[in-house]
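Hi D.,

Good news: the full-assembly prediction came through. Inputs first.
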Amino acid sequence: MNDADTVRDSSGAPDPLDLDDFRRNGHQLIDWIAAYLEGLESRPVRESVEPGDVRAKLPEAAPESPEPFEAMLADLDDIVVPGLAHWQHPGWFAYFPAMSSPAAILGELAAAGLGVQGMLWSTSPAVTEVESHVLDWLVDLTGVPQAWKTTGPGGGVLQMSASDSTHTALVVARDQTRDRTRAPAEEMVVYASSQAHSSIEKGARVAGYGHVRLIAVDPVFALDPLALEAAVNDDLAAGLTPAFVCAAVGTTGTTAVDPVRTTGEIARRHGMWLHVDAAYAGAAMICPEFRHHQDGLELADSYTFNAHKWMATNFDCSIFWVADRKPLIETLSILPPYLRDSASETGAVIDYRDWHVPLGRRFRALKLWFVLRSFGAQGLRSMIRTSASQARELAEWLDADPRFEVVAPTPFALVSFRHAAGDDATRALAEAINASGSSYVTPSELDNRPFIRVSIGSTWTREHHVTRLRDLIDRVG
Amino acid sequence: MNDADTVRDSSGAPDPLDLDDFRRNGHQLIDWIAAYLEGLESRPVRESVEPGDVRAKLPEAAPESPEPFEAMLADLDDIVVPGLAHWQHPGWFAYFPAMSSPAAILGELAAAGLGVQGMLWSTSPAVTEVESHVLDWLVDLTGVPQAWKTTGPGGGVLQMSASDSTHTALVVARDQTRDRTRAPAEEMVVYASSQAHSSIEKGARVAGYGHVRLIAVDPVFALDPLALEAAVNDDLAAGLTPAFVCAAVGTTGTTAVDPVRTTGEIARRHGMWLHVDAAYAGAAMICPEFRHHQDGLELADSYTFNAHKWMATNFDCSIFWVADRKPLIETLSILPPYLRDSASETGAVIDYRDWHVPLGRRFRALKLWFVLRSFGAQGLRSMIRTSASQARELAEWLDADPRFEVVAPTPFALVSFRHAAGDDATRALAEAINASGSSYVTPSELDNRPFIRVSIGSTWTREHHVTRLRDLIDRVG
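Then the structure:
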């Protein structure tokens, strides 16, 4: 099975299918990754690179003959690494953390090594059953409604990103609304706060909705339910059809928390779909003390959170739960002859191809399973609590210093602040932090005024990295 | 950086962040994967497993404390492997091959190890530039129009699956058609042959199109252009708006080839978007002798092929090319403050978040880059040619035997045949092959009659595996 005459080059070039080479190369790459992670701190968080720099180092044409793995490994050092922002750097405080961990990396590797397709239960039962099981574990771990288990009327599925999960929810809601009201999508309305993630607006546009209303927020940047109710009534009066509302638990801008229960009650009253976007903060719910932020989930039709943000699992691993899987499957199921299957036809199994847009799917649940086991629930809780408490301490320190203004609460592990001396000072401070090379933050805007987002919780960030950032702010500020 | 006090368990449990453990575990897993691939032939292609078997072996709840990696490795053997269909088995002739290779596995590992996000150019320039560059290489390697290079008006992007690529094309076409005609999506029509992949119908439904016409095919299962023209005219007469037509180069059922040029001419005449679905056969175009099958590509607006089918790259790695990237970006670009970026604003860079539904993206180009370099173009051509010639030989052998009927041409590496003794004999033959454990095929249907798909081209399939399948067909038949 290891002969590869058909691809072996007569010149004695490496055989791309030699499994002893694979062992040797794989060991080298594992060591390379460990050294990369260990060495991150000696690099700037974001490498200095101009448009075209990376491509300029790449050959004009693909090689005709096989190259040895050593050439690829060398190019990781010479071409790839100098062209990255190092998301796993301990000084990474930008965007949200894109946490990874040794267990996640190995889970991804195992999935790639197995190379199986989980589009149907029958095309590799373990892919589906491990996924269902691990997502049911997470129902218990995060305290979301029991009905969301795959053993109940709902169920969970892994998608690539929260954008995909939200888009899927929008498509199902659109079809449900059309069946109920006969309204065309062009007359349907989607609601979310002005602080909602761009994926709501993008998903609504992709799904063909005619209208998106970005609703006013209260002083802590949470959706104002009175403004929502008023917008719904205005749209009804104009002959439009309210169809979908998104409540964010932890917005991207400032991790504001929309009132899920009140939003859900408005949704129920008007027959709208309630989607909860907890892309970032959902991971925190493994700690019971955060769950009050999402009181009212029993009113939700769908929910998404990204294990690839704050749960030590590398991208892509977005969890999508629905309270009722029937409308989902109704909208997304297509049954050509080459996908017919006796196990599917009994209804005894889940075929995840009917739970999202793509047909094929790799074994992503493996890395989530490995992460949950490698850390244990305790380890993950401790990780969440540590970063949340580091964030609270930083926020308190900023709050106590008259040079700075904390612009939003810190319910999770994101600190939002600006310089009290004005917008130029805020911009200059963000630039100075990012130019330091040791810490990296995201400059953003609220009400057309700049502020700085400090997102704490990267896998390798320790207390002293947060302290170093604080000292830097102190010094530059 | 390697201290992990916050997650270390006081009981002396393993530290999930210890990088020496990662090295040790990683080496073990690499060896495990090599042994898995070497040992596949001693396993049945598809394990015998009933619904619930896998879950029954999993604990009720997630562990509270960290588990050692050895426990996960043991569960790969005890729980996962006995619950799989082994898509990398040399006797895999089912569906299409989901080829993987050592270089692809290592590319996926490297991407997971780096753990970077390529949503914007600036969030890790190398992710975007390697992707653009490698897809431009593929333009030359496969002979598709030069205008599809990212250095031209078009460009390529990696998506998860052909379903995602096709859905993206459908969304852009819908918005283009709406801007041009003011017609609502509910009045727009999508055309594809009756043999088109289910992703066309699913994508059209997801994108909100009101109508999908599955057009009659000719005796070799290719789209009949006269029937297409007639359907378009009927729809126009009924006041509907023709918007999108898909030409398949290599259908899923029998790898039939629709007439791309004629279909494109009809599309041009009626202002429709022409999408070419070469999900499977696109890989073959690295061999010039197959390119006549897609004559007329200069009329196409978009094109998709899956490197994760017949190009030795593990799922997911679907290539999506557009002839003009402007409408794509117009439809999919949303710009919230936290994603604003100076490099993006100059227009000097590509931000791939605007080229598909998801925002986040991992470094998938790495595995494609590794595969192209590990095999070299010659190696990939040789792999394609070998499987195509094995398929032709099998088809000729079946054709010469009066017990069997080859039901469709074999332009690539799929053989479609049935038993001459009737449908029951065909079904029984498929069952006998799949029960053998050594070979696995997909039973399918054409015109409500069963036939057997034999898809040749799995990475580890050699001449003698095809011979063994032929002998099995001979014996059972």
